C-alpha cells in the first residue's frame, strides 16, 4: 500500500513481475480518495500509450474500512491495457477535484517477445479543427492551469483508448444515450436505454458521472420494440430506463458514465460504462474568450507542441492549413463580441414609408400552445385587423393552436419542410427549398414574417420569391449550439445567413440581441419588447373568482397554490422546481408553524421522457400536493386560481408567462436569466440563479411568508411595471410600424 496526493491505493491484479504478455492485460485494485480530494478520473500509461480506466467501482470491504460506511465514493478500479513490444514503463495517474493529474504509481516493465505494436494514432490535422475551440473554452474554464498543461490533457484524451462495458449475461440491454458524445441540456446529461436480467428482478438502477453523486434511474418503463427481438426476456415490455444526471465538466475532455444494477438478493453489478465527450446543446456553455488572433495562435501552438510530445504527426501542411481555417471560423462564429448599443424602437426612430395595406405571410415553427406561437397568433391577428390587410399563416407542424388561428380569421397552411432540414449540404438544402417554394402562392405577397430562429428557412423562402422579410428571435442560444442536434454542420451558415438576409431582425429581449450581435448586417437589427393583453386579463379576472376556479378544477379553496406555468421541458427547469419543493417542505417542517395545505402545479405537460422522469422524481422524493397538468389551450384560469407564480427556467428571452403572472397581480419567484431582468427588477419579484434548487426554495419560502403576512408589495410593483411598459395597445403599433418599414425595403 502506498500514498500519493492524500490517496491510498493497492494494485491487486497485474502481470507477474510486471512482464506483459501479448494482447490485452487487466490491472485492477482500489484507490481511496477522501471526499475533499475526490478521484475524478483514472488513466494508465505504457510509455506514450494511454489507456483510460474504470474508476469508482464498489468495494464494500474497503469503503467500510476507510469511510466507516458504504460509498460513494467507491474505491475500486480496473484498466485493460496492451503493452507494445519493447515497452519499458507503466504509470498510473489520478485526476484530483481541481482537474490536475497526479502520478500514483510507476514501475519498469518488460514485454513478451510476441507482443505487437498498438493501433495507429490520428494526426494533428485530423483533430485540430475541433480541438482549438475546445482548448480555448477549457482555458477560460480552468484559468489557473497553464495552456500547455491543458493542451497536453486534451491531446492525451484524444489518443487514449477508452474502456467501455456492456451488460454481461445473464444481463441483457443497451445504452442508447450517451454514446461517443453526450448531449448536455441545461446542466444535465440525458440517459436512455433498456436493461433486463434473465432470472432475477432488478430492484434499483443507479448512475454516476461525478465521484460523490449517485443518481437513481427510473427503470421498468414501457418499451414495446424489445418484444420482437428478445421474445424470451421476462417482462420484456417494461425494460426501458430514462433519466438524467447533473454534470459539471471541463469542455473538450471526456467523462465516464457508469450504470449499476441492484438485484433483489442485494448484489450490485456494473452493467454499463461509457466514456463520452460532453456537448452542450441547450443552456449555458463554457464561454470562448474574446476573438483574438493572438489567443488563437497560442492555442494552436500549444496543441502542436503537445502533439509532438505524444509522438503524433502533423498530417501534412495542406490538411493542417484547412483544419486551422475551419477552427478559426468556428472560433469567430462563437466568440463574444463587444455588446452593441441597444435602445428600444420608438415611432420616431422608424423610417416608415409603406402606408398601403399589406398582404403578409406569417411563418410559425409550430402550432402548439407555447409562448412563441401565442405571440405570433396575437401579432398576426393584430395585423389582420388593420384596414385592408390580408394575413395567412404557414407552419411545418400542425397542432392545437390551428383552431385559434382559424377562429381569428387567419388561414393556415401546413407544409412539409423536413426534406430541406434533413439535408447534409447547402446545395441539397437549397434544392429542397426551391421545391417547397414552388408549392406556395407568392403572388401579391408584400412581406414574409418568420417567427423564431427555428423558422430561419422562411427567410430563405422569401429570398427565393424576392419578397421583403422580417425575422423575430425568441431564442438566447447561439446558432451553432442551438442547432447542433438538429441540423447538419454544413447548414449552420444558412441559419446565420438568414440574419443577414432578413430586412429586419426583431429581438424581443436586449439580452438576445447581444448573443447574435456579430450577425447584424447593415444595421438590420432592432430591439422591440413583447406585449401583454392587459385588458383581456382584467376582463377574465373580473369574470372568474379564484374560489370558483378552484371548485371547477378540484383544488381546495383554503390551499396555498404555487403555479409553474409553461411547456414542461428541460429548458423550463421543472426538475429544479421539484427539488425546490422538497427543500421547501424541509424548511417549513423546521419552523413547526401550522400552515394551510400547499399545492404545487406544473401546467403545460406533454408526453415524453422528461415528463416520465419528473413523475418518477416526485415519487422518489415522496412529495405530496404536486400535480402535473396537461398542456391546455388557455392558461388564464391557473394564474387566477394560484397564489404564487414560479418560473424555474434556465433560458428565457422575454417570457410571456411572467408578463401574464404580473398582470394577474401574482407574487413572482423566478430565475434571473436572459431577458427576465429587463422586465422585472429585484423589487418586483424574488429572483434567483438558474438551476439552484436551494435558492429557489428559499425564494419560495420568502414569497410564502409575504403571502401569509398579506404583503403584496412586490406583486403590486410588478403589476405596475408590466401594465405600463408592456401593454398591447402601446407595443403592437410599434410592431406594426416595423412591419411596414420592412415591407418598404428591397
Task: Give a quick precis of the structure.
By secondary structure, the chain is an alpha/beta fold. It is 34% helix and 25% strand.
Would you give an account of this structure?
It is a single chain. The protein is an alpha/beta fold. It has four domains: 119 residues, Sandwich (Immunoglobulin-like), CATH 2.60.40; 215 residues, Immunoglobulin-like (Sandwich), CATH 2.60.40; 195 residues, Glycogen Phosphorylase B (Rossmann fold), CATH 3.40.50; 193 residues, 3-Layer(aba) Sandwich (Rossmann fold), CATH 3.40.50. Helices cover 34% and strands 25% of the residues. The protein is built from 23 helices and 33 strands. The strands form six sheets. Strands 12, 13, 14, 15, 16, 17, 18, 19 and 20 form a nine-stranded mixed beta sheet that branches. A seven-stranded parallel beta sheet has the order 23-22-21-24-25-26-27, sandwiched between helices. A six-stranded parallel beta sheet has the order 30-29-28-31-32-33, sandwiched between helices. The model has no long low-confidence stretch (mean pLDDT 89).
How many angstroms separate the termini? 78 Å
- What's the pLDDT, averaged over the residues? 89
Number of alpha- plus pi-helical segments:
23
Poorly predicted regions are none
Global structural class: alpha/beta
Domain count, please report it.
Answer: 4
What's the CATH architecture name of the largest domain?
Answer: Sandwich
Write down the CATH topology of the largest domain.
Immunoglobulin-like
* Strand-residue proportion: 25-35%
Apparent shape: globular
Share of helix, binned: 25-40%
CATH C-level class of the largest domain is: Mainly Beta
**Mind describing the biggest β-sheet?**
9 strands, mixed
Give the beta-strand count. 33
Radius of gyration: 29 Å
